[in-house]
Structure formats: C-alpha cells, structure tokens
C-alpha cells in the first residue's frame, strides 16, 4: 500500500501562540494485547496509564483539560463495562484527574473546558468534579449518549456521561480545515495553536489534539485511542481483529478500515521533525516520565 503524502505542518507566524502541555495522572488499566494487536498472545498483557492532559494557551492563559481518565467508582459504570473490568481489564486509580489538578495547585472548579477524546469508559472520568466546565465532544457523541445505558441495558456508553446543557456537540462540518496528514481539523482558538482532529475509526466522536508546543515549530499530537500500542503507528504490527462464534467481527475499533487509515496518518507524524506523538495508553512513555517534570505542574518539553 502506498504511503500517504505528508504535507508539511504549517510554519509558525510571528509571535506565534502555542500550548503548554502537561500530563495528568488519571488511573491505570490492564490491556490484554491480543484485543488490540494482531498475533499477540493471551499472555501479553500491559498495565497502562489512561493519560489525561492539561493545556494552557501561551498568550491568553486560557486552559483546558483533555480527557478525564478512569472512574474510581467502577460500580457507576454500565454492567457491560463492569464485566470488561472484572474479566479482562482490571483498573486502579491511585490519583484521579481532579486530584492531579488539585495536587498541582489547579482548582477543578476553575476548569472552564473539558475536551473528551471519546465516550469510552476509561476516558470519561468524573465530569461531576468539574461543575463549571463546558464539555466538548466529537460528531456522533450525542447519538451514542441517546442510545446509551440505562435506556439500552447492553450499551457500554452512559447516557449521562456529560451534562448536555453544558456541552458542545461538534458537527462534521466544524472540521473545516486540513493540516499536515489530516484532512479534517478544527482550528480551536483560530490562531494555529491547537487543532482538534477528526480521528475516524475508533468510535463515533473520537477526536485527537494537534498542538504547537513552542513558537518556533514544535508540536505534540495527543492521539487518544488511535492505537493501543506504539508498534501500530510504526507499522511493525497490525490491528487485531477476529470473529466470535456467531461470525460477528471483533475489533477494538468500531470501523476497522477507517481506524487503520487514521493510524497511518498519525504514523506519518513520526517521520516529521519536532513532532511528539503520545498515545493515551503509552506504557513506555509513562514508565520513563512518571513522577517527573512532564506531569503538572511541569510541562512536557517541546521536541
């Protein structure tokens, strides 16, 4: 298969605003790799972070949180999710997002915006801990919530995930610019400092963040659940899929072909200078940086 053309990321303007990006502890999840990586064996299991992030605009000081990680109260999840946790994906939350913020001197009550990468249970955290925040979610999220639990007992999405009256449900036509390898993006502040990326394939509404991290051309890509193993981005391994006894295809992504396309686009960033790509469940990065200056109140250094 031919490589995707790689348009260059735009050069910074004079006095270019950028984002200061900090990691947040948001709980740990056990990932059996054979659910995500083709040809992985059942004994290949990673205990990974479910990372969240604090982003602050360099010139205005406006800040937002990207993802809220795992809930400590697993009993509040839908029954299907509790089954996942009990059978395959044990969790532990030594420190929640709101606790991570408070420990770093940021009052969760002052958070004005929370962007959720998507509505899967290990990213939604406790929205009630952010009573003054508006929530931003991607296209199709409203429909997932409307068809969610408890109205649909078989759903793994909570219909009450976020307060609709304080939520911005993005539409497909909000993603009206292209940038680098990504054909659908939203210039969030209108100044080229932060782009929301329509990250197709994993789940309806999955959005990633592409942000400048310096005024001279450094970037970070927060990839959410684009992939659950860095080797999928490098092309060393392939996305897992199989079939249950009824013949239904099983895959960690709702639309496998679209997910593979997006993985290839994100993988293209690895070939670019000064671009840091970070997955939500990036075990190696977490192991190298846990407890260090990449976590709030520190900042992930520009590449």
UniProtKB/TrEMBL annotation:
InterPro entries in UniProt: MBL_superfamily_lactonases, Metallo-B-lactamas, RibonucZ/Hydroxyglut_hydro
Domain Metallo-beta-lactamase: 49-281
Gene Ontology MF term list: hydrolase activity; metal ion binding
Family annotation (SUPFAM superfamilies): Metallo-hydrolase/oxidoreductase
Cofactors named for this entry: Zn(2+)
Pfam families attached to this UniProt entry: Lactamase_B
Record's keyword terms, sorted: Hydrolase, Metal-binding, Zinc
The organism's place on the tree of life at top rank: Eukaryota
Alphabetical list of CDD domains matching this protein: metallo-hydrolase-like_MBL-fold
Region forming the signal peptide: none
PANTHER family: 102 KBASES UNSTABLE REGION: FROM 1 TO 119443, QUORUM-QUENCHING LACTONASE YTNP-RELATED-RELATED
Family recorded in the similarity comment: Belongs to the metallo-beta-lactamase superfamily.
Protein name as annotated: Metallo-hydrolase/oxidoreductase
Lineage of the species this protein comes from: Eukaryota, Fungi, Dikarya, Basidiomycota, Agaricomycotina
């Amino acid at each position: 298969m031919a490589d995707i053309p790689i348009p260059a990321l735009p050069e910074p303007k004079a006095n270019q605003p950028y984002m200061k990006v900090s990691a947040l502890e948001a709980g740990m999840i056990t990932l059996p790799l054979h659910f995500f990586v083709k040809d992985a064996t059942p004994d290949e299991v990673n205990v990974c972070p479910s990372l969240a992030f604090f982003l602050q605009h360099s010139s205005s000081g406006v800040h937002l949180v990207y993802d809220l990680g795992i809930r400590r109260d697993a009993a509040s999840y839908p029954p299907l999710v509790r089954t996942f946790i009990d059978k395959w994906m044990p969790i532990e939350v030594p420190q929640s997002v709101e606790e991570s913020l408070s420990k770093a001197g940021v009052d969760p009550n002052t958070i004005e915006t929370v962007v959720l990468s998507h509505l899967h249970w290990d990213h939604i955290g406790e929205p009630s801990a952010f009573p003054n925040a508006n929530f931003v979610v991607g296209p199709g999220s409203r429909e997932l919530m409307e068809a969610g639990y408890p109205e649909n007992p078989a759903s793994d999405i909570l219909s009450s995930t976020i307060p609709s009256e304080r939520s911005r449900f993005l539409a497909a036509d909000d993603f009206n610019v292209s940038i680098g390898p990504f054909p659908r993006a939203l210039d969030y502040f209108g100044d080229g400092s932060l782009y929301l990326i329509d990250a197709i394939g994993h789940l309806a509404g999955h959005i990633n963040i592409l942000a400048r991290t310096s005024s001279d051309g450094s970037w970070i890509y927060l990839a959410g659940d684009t992939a659950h193993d860095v080797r999928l981005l490098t092309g060393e391994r392939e996305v897992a899929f199989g079939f249950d006894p009824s013949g239904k295809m099983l895959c960690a992504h709702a639309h496998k072909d679209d997910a593979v396309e997006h993985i290839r686009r994100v993988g293209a960033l690895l070939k670019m200078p000064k671009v840091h790509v970070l997955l939500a469940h990036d075990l190696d990065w977490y192991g190298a940086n846990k407890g260090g200056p990449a976590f709030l109140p520190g900042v992930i250094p520009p590449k």
